[in-house]
Amino acid sequence: GAQVRDPRSLRGRKDGAGDNLSPKKLVAPMPGRVVRVLVREKADVEAGQGIVIVEAMKMQNEIKSPKKGILRKLLAEEGNNVNAGDVLAIVE
Q1: Is residue 9 part of a domain?
Q2: So what's the pLDDT on residue 22?
Q3: Residue of 31, 28, 69 whose CA lies nearest to 47
Q4: What pLDDT was estimated at residue 6?
């Protein structure tokens, strides 16, 4: 049968999956509070490794690294309130 493509999923990935060299931002998926920072700035991280834990509505959400690399910049601080879309860290 014909494949139905969701136009939203295409638009959301402008940077393409192949460019592992460019920095990737970790953004808060929802408003909440940073309860724990799991990795120090400049540390090596693996793809899928938890970086920051954001608590929202009594649920703790582990924000994971999108790729293997170095935690170039850590913007989240424990105790900070964040909004959806706030950049928590940058992995390069």
Answers
A1: no
A2: 86
A3: 69
A4: 57
CATH for 32:
2.40.50.100
**Cβ–Cβ < 8 Å for 82, 34:** yes
**pTM to 2 decimal places:** 0.74
Residues of the chain with pLDDT under 50: 10-16
Q: Domain total for the chain?
A: 1
Q: What's the N-to-C CA distance of the chain in angstroms?
A: 40
Q: Tokens for 31?
A: 């408003």
The enclosing H or E element of 32 equals strand 32-37
**Number of C-alpha atoms within 13 angstroms, CB side, residue 20?**
8
pLDDT of residue 82: 98
